[in-house]
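Quick one:
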Amino acid sequence: MAGRKRRKWSDEEKISICLQTKAPGVSVSQVARRYAMGGNQIFNWLKDARFSPPSDEANEDAVFLPITVSNDAVSEPAAPFSPVSTQPSRLEIALSGGHRLSVEGHFDGAELARLLKGLIL
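Output:
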């Protein structure tokens, strides 16, 4: 097949992709389309204990955070935040391509880190 390139996925990428399939309401085929790959490849990774998330992690309740992405220029880096915010706050994170992620209100730093790991692959 001319024009096809074989991609090499790192172990961290495989783990991240497999973890995304465990989110409530997300199918393997949706994740496969997101990465322009076949669903069978993900199913093979899920069978491998090195990449498949532990069953207790897969049963965690999903936490959705209010976010906005804009193309505005970032004037200064966001201030560091504590792992768990107890008061409403605002966090802005500069992403590649000039995009910015803004999170407002109460948020858990660990959950935000998991969200970012899914966004930044």
